[in-house]
């Protein structure tokens, strides 16, 4: 159990931290009982949690498999939707606690976790609650009936979208609860059972959610949680012979490993939401450059730059390039770094020491390779993993900071002249998650959004994210879609019945 104190020790939240199987908290069989969670704000130990091992995964799989055969399998789809809505109600009720946990564990400002992460999590549950009884199949007209001489004979073919079975959800640390909901809500709406592996760095909101899942009445074994190291628990899941699907969100490097073990074990289904290096393209005809600056600023610096969608390549047309750089610098100067639980804080620390050191290394590489440091560029303060919001101008396509995912508050601004040139340069990346174009010319906006190779392109905005909008990448940014009606196909299988009807 970890207890978090907040509001000057006037309030506290207690969170169980073991393995959650069959709606019970159990000790790990073969994991590591002593993993320290570090508070990124002050580098102190938040508490010790128990990590799971391979045998815990086996145990969770058995629970999830038997739940697939139990009352979950016969529950009316509408009732699955009602349970998801009850969970959404519970999250509304516990919104403050949940947002606080997320802010303390991840280091994200409470203004963001309360307003954004919790709102999205609740909305995702409600959206997919609505889908639970609307996942339908088709009837198919048949042309090749084997016997046309019998007039009363008909062949009826129909499809159903059936659950896949036991799904493992492997998650990153940047939006622990919200990204869990991207997968948990549709997986359950479609009738699957799940085993969740939160990031070992940020499991607390998932642990807290487990209690709410039990309280609202999900049958035992439908949702299980095994937190552990990726190389142990994550690997045991992707190579498991009795898991039917992996829903993975994380880095491209690990995503490829997960895909390989998923294929080489039992050819299980696998959907992957991976890294990005997203471009924003700003044409010199924009009407309100100040607004564009705000959009692109948040596009990169939101969540301290720890976003898969982070707009880390900003292409600005030559005529307005200098003006844009000047305005971004002014915007950065207004950014308030500090305690994530303080409502006035805009940016908290990076999530952990590894990320912190990796980002500072990228900043040094940027300087060494000849980009111009406009502002920031170093640690903020001397305690906690804080990094100053950093902007580089005169960045070229070959520089490391323009090619690799930094996953921190580091903006690269590049200059371009023509439409085709910027499309080709934006596409010269292994990634293809999202992108944006800013222009008042509708023709340009359509041409650029059609040709930029990414799963989603915003026009004159950034980061409009909604459960009804498909989410997922092209190229090394992943495969399959989270969110929206489109994701239902990654949580179900098509089952066809062909019926020979004769009198
Ligand atoms: P990561 O790949 O290091 O870890 C993600 C998860 O995989 C963690 O739970 C980790 O424990 C687990 N894992 C690690 N090694 C594993 C292995 N061998 N087998 C199975 N699982 C393993 O990523 P991260 O550092 O937690 O998150 C940051 C990355 O996630 C960034 O690249 C970011 O772009 C990406 N991301 C993508 C999206 C998206 O929607 N496309 C959203 C958020 C984050």
Task: Describe the protein's topology.
Elements: E1 2-6, E2 11-15, E3 19-21, E4 24-26, E5 32-38, E6 45-51, H1 54-69, H2 71-74, H3 77-93, H4 95-106, H5 110-131, E7 139-140, E8 154-163, E9 166-170, H6 176-189, E10 193-197, H7 204-216, E11 223-225, H8 230-238, E12 245-249, H9 252-264, E13 269-273, E14 279-282, H10 289-301, E15 313-317, H11 318-333, H12 353-368, E16 372-375, E17 390-393, H13 400-403, E18 410-416, H14 419-427, E19 431-432, E20 434-438, H15 442-451, E21 456-459, E22 474-475, E23 478-479, E24 492-501
Parallel strand pairs: 9-10, 9-12, 10-11, 12-13, 14-15, 14-20, 15-18, 17-18, 20-21
Antiparallel strand pairs: 1-2, 3-4, 5-6, 7-8, 8-24, 13-23, 16-17, 19-22
The chain binds nicotinamide-adenine-dinucleotide.
**Average pLDDT over all residues:** 96
Q: Assign the structural class, choosing from mainly alpha, mainly beta, alpha/beta, alpha+beta, or little secondary structure.
A: alpha/beta
How widely separated are the two ends? 66 Å
Biggest sheet descriptor: 7 strands, mixed
Strand content: 15-25%
Bound molecules: nicotinamide-adenine-dinucleotide
Arrangement of strands in the largest sheet: 16-17-18-15-14-20-21
Overall 3D form = globular
Total number of strands: 24
Estimated radius of gyration:
24 Å
What is the CATH level 1 assignment of the largest domain?
Answer: Alpha Beta
Number of H- or I-type helical stretches: 15
Q: Unreliable stretches, pLDDT < 50, 5 or more residues?
A: none
**Can you tell me the number of structural domains?**
2
CATH overall fold name of the largest domain: Aldehyde Dehydrogenase, Chain A, domain 1
The CATH homologous superfamily of the largest domain is termed Aldehyde Dehydrogenase, Chain A, domain 1
Corresponding CATH architecture of the largest domain: 3-Layer(aba) Sandwich
Q: What is the helix content?
A: 25-40%
């Amino acid at each position: 159990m970890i207890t978090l104190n907040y509001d000057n020790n006037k309030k506290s939240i207690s969170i169980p931290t073991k393995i959650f199987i069959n709606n019970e908290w159990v000790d790990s069989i073969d994991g590591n009982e002593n993993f320290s969670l570090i508070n990124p704000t002050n580098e102190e130990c938040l508490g010790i949690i128990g990590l799971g091992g391979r045998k815990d995964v086996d145990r969770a799989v058995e629970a999830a498999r038997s739940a697939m055969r139990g009352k979950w399998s016969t529950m009316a789809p509408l009732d699955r939707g009602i349970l998801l809505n009850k969970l959404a109600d519970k999250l509304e009720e516990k919104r403050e606690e949940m947002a606080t946990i997320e802010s303390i564990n991840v280091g994200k400002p409470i203004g963001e976790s309360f307003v954004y992460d919790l709102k999205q999590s609740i909305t995702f549950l409600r959206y997919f609650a609505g889908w639970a009884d609307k996942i339908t199949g088709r009837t198919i007209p048949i042309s090749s009936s084997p016997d046309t001489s019998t007039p009363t004979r008909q062949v009826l073919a129909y499809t159903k979208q059936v659950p896949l079975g036991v799904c493992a959800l492997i998650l990153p640390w940047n939006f622990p609860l919200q990204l869990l909901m991207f997968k948990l809500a549709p997986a359950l709406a479609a009738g699957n059972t799940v085993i969740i592996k939160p990031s070992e760095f940020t499991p607390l909101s998932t642990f807290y959610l487990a209690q709410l899942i039990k309280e609202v009445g999900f049958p035992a074994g439908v949702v299980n949680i095994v937190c552990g190291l990726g190389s142990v628990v994550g690997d045991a899941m992707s190579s498991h012979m009795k898991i039917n699907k992996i829903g993975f969100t994380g880095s491209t490097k690990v995503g490829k490993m997960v895909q390989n073990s998923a294929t080489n074990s039992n050819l299980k289904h696998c959907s992957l939401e991976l890294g990005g290096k997203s471009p924003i393209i700003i044409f010199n005809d924009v009407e309100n450059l100040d607004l564009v600056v705000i959009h692109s600023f948040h596009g990169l610096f939101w969540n301290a730059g720890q976003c898969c969608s982070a707009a880390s390549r900003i292409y600005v047309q030559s005529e307005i390039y200098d003006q844009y750089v000047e305005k971004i610098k002014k915007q950065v100067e207004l950014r308030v770094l500090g305690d994530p639980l303080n409502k006035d804080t805009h940016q908290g620390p990076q999530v952990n020491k590894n990320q912190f050191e990796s980002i500072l290394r990228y900043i040094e590489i940027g300087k060494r390779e000849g980009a111009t440091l406009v502002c920031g560029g170093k640690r903020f303060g001397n305690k906690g993993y804080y990094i100053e919001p950093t902007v580089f101008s005169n960045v070229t396509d070959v520089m490391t900071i323009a090619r690799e995912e930094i996953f921190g508050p580091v903006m690269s601004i590049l200059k371009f002249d023509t439409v085709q040139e910027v499309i080709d340069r934006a596409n010269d990346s292994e990634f293809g998650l999202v992108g944006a174009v800013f222009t008042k010319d509708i023709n340009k906006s359509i041409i650029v959004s059609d040709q930029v190779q990414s799963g989603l392109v915003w026009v004159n905005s950034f980061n409009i994210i909604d459960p009804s909008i498909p989410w997922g990448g092209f190229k090394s940014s992943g495969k399959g879609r989270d969110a929206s009606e489109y994701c239902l196909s990654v949580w179900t299988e098509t089952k066809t019945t062909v019926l020979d009807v004769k009198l």
